[in-house]
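One such shown below:

_____
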Amino acid sequence: MVTILFHETIFGPIHSRRLGTSLGVNLSPTDGKVCSFDCIYCEAGYNSQGQGQNGLPSREMVKKALSSKLKQMKENDAPLDVITFSGNGEPTVHPHFKEIIQDTLMLRDRFYPEVKVSVLTNSSFLTNAKVVQALKTVDNNIVKLDSAIISTMRIINAPVNVDVVPAGIIADLKQFEGQCIIQTMLLRGEHNGKKFDNTTDEELDALIEAYKEIKPRSVMIYSIDRKTPEENLEKISQDEMQRIATKIRNAGIEVETF
């Protein structure tokens, strides 16, 4: 089983194909995974590997580590495009997510005021008012919607809470009033004997209708780029990706491919 874990709270900078030179913030344990989804394509592996022993980093620990790293980078005149919350799980699970975002924006303004702050979220905690408030303050609120069809979402994303369904996520995303970027992973394959493909006309039509409801700033579509815990997955070719992007653009939605 793939288990590529970030063993630090602040990691990188690394090159992100979507965001550029990115300094990562991992609000999950440094020796385990904490996520409200169990996506079959997650580079950090399945949740079954466990949450480890270290626990979630404290607000104070995150602030201290981020301040130290940004100060060091600034002194070395190191380039930076974005500070990105991702890591070994879902960042909005952290009970002090809002306060950590506030600290991060303050430190960004002190050391790298031109740099963006991005959060990659699976959209499962948007019923939490504090999470929504925090996401509205960042530059790039990047939210996940891989399928607008329940059966496909349950295969691809495997939400821990079975009450999390596409219709609920779509309704939650509408509250951002366009202040979000949707990321959609496109892939096909088989998992636990069930075949799936979120690039069919039925799937794409459902996604496009969801995009129209949410009215995001833009949509990012991409496919698998690293080893995944499920081996029976197929990466979508760039030619097919461009065809899908054209279909989405023809519906009046801004889209980027990666």
Summary: The chain has one domain: 10-257. The mean pLDDT is 96. The radius of gyration is 18 Å.
